[in-house]
Amino acid sequence: MNVVVVAAHPDDEVLGCGGTMARHVANGDHVTTIIVAEGSTSRQTSRDSKSDACNLSVLKKSGLRANAKLGVDDVRFLEFPDNRLDGVHRLDLVKALEQVLPDLQPSCVYTHSAADLNIDHQLVHEAVLTACRPFPGQVTHTILCFEVASSTEWRGAGSAAPFVPNWFVDISAHLEAKASALQEYAAEMRAWPHARSLESLEALAKWRGASIGVGAAEAFQLARHLR
Ligand SMILES: [Zn+2]
After folding, report:
1. Which residues surround ligand 1, an ion (CB under 5 A)?
2. Helix (H) or strand (E) holding 219
3. Residue 105 CA to ligand 1 centre (angstroms)
């Protein structure tokens, strides 16, 4: 089975579904990660500086190493501007995905929940749903939306439908790989009690696991399933 993970920024794929990715790989599935935006440059006041280029190449290398820890060696970077996807024509975003997805023939796609505070996450969610719309012959049968600690839970009450998971993946055997992959994104991680700390991510995995009676899990919302 071919699986594609579409993440807005480098680190979102591991935060959202790193354990599930490792589990797919262990099951013999082929996993591809698509990272839509650059990451990190939104922290600068302007783009295009030499330091940006240097930060980005460091971040890309982190992305490759993190995915390798999960057993994923196919990582594609679309290099849209970080946290500025609302300045990109929606059609360009959809087209960029439509250029990559047909070759990959994914039967299952993981991406962001629309219930995130981060604008890039919201826009990537919509772009994936659009690129994978169920036209005749569509091979993508399942679209699952993940949560990203430090974004999904930060959306204000009433500003969007809340993230209520209805799909859980037992990652008890893969939590260690997820934590190890997150360590490759050390520059993106924060110290406890920040929501994007290793301690918080482990606590979330255990809470999602406890919700379904296993040691650790990742939680998703099913956006579409075709049978
Ligand atoms: Zn992100």
Report:
1. 8-9, 12
2. strand 217-225
3. 25
